[in-house]
Amino acid sequence: xxxxxxxxxxxxxxxxxxxxxxxxxxxxxxxxxxxxxxxxxxxxxxxxxxxxxxxxxxxxxxxxxxxxxxxxxxxxxxxxxxxxxxxxxxxxxxxxxxxxxxxxxxxxxxxxxxxxxxxxxxxxxxxxxxxxxxxxxxxxxxxxxxxxxxxxxxxxxxxxxxxxxxxxxxxxxxxxxxxxxxxxxxxxxxxxxxxxxxxxxxxxxxxxxxxxxxxxxxxxxxxxxxxxxxxxxxxxxx
Length: 238
Prior knowledge:
CATH class: Alpha Beta
Helix content: 25-40%
Number of strands: 12
Radius of gyration: 16 Å
CATH architecture: Alpha-Beta Barrel
Low-confidence stretches: none
Strand content: 25-35%
Shape: globular
Order of helices and strands: EEEHEHHEHEHHEEEHEHEHEHH
């Protein structure tokens, strides 16, 4: 399936944010497993889980949640606060198919290399979060000077196999994805890219899939699903 449903977890609940702003969190399910099961029942073949507390730098262990997600019966990848090999290893051992890593790539390069070595490149997705043209870190609360394209090129040299590109300004806003940004990063790095941020309708998903030959392999869909603008079943044939 080209589209991957998102389950963002904040304070133990499934929520959606707007542009990563915690104050604008909206709760959709008191139990994130209910959200995952909803998308699995609709035909999802992979679920994208985000530990928002971890992304914001707070202690929040979702390993117990991983055990419950396994019972849903659909593979899942998890990100948010995974800043060293030990944390990544715990999630992989708990059943996650892949881990999504962002901040450590730019703030602890040596630690990231150790994580990549221990987890294996096929099980690591690197998040390239873009805020006003700059790479964002720490739950999108800070930025660095490295451009998204430069980061993508550097990651290719490290044998990274997959990127997750998010336009922070569009995340949760239902304003349409930044297809050009996603293309630019895919071209710069020559690495398969998962798009994220802004999807509002099935036509947005089709636009991204039309660019699949340029390196866009999938798209994360969040608020549009929760708000009923897209049905999971509609995405199966795209």
